[in-house]
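[#protein-structures] MJ: dropping STAS/SEC14 domain-containing protein here for a structure pass
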Amino acid sequence: MPVQWTISNPHRLVIAVARDELRLEDVENYLDGVAVADALAYRKIFDTTHAKMMLSDADVMALGARIRAYLKMGRLGPLAIVAVTERAYQQARLFETLAEGNRPIRIFRELHLAREWLDGFGEAA
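AK: finished. structure tokens for STAS/SEC14 domain-containing protein:
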């Protein structure tokens, strides 16, 4: 399973870690799981440190459209994306642009900086 995630309801936090080859269906499965768990409004970290990005620009555009649809359904929590490779960083930037909405998104090269930023929102985020 390329994306594994943990949802902490008491902390209103979702931590997702991508491994191996990351494809569109993997991210869609993750998003479906978060939506079904009613955790879209939670703070989120999506860590791609150990993933090989197999997403095309069209895939990233599809994810952006999905996020915009979620925004119409309700509030989304802050998102910290950890992207250490140049490809992952560029795709995260494209996603950030395409998934624009009323929620903070930031891209980091290091996990601890992402967590620090996200913790600044507190559990009420």
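MJ: nice. The chain is about 40% helix and 30% strand.
AK: one more thing. The mean pLDDT is 94.
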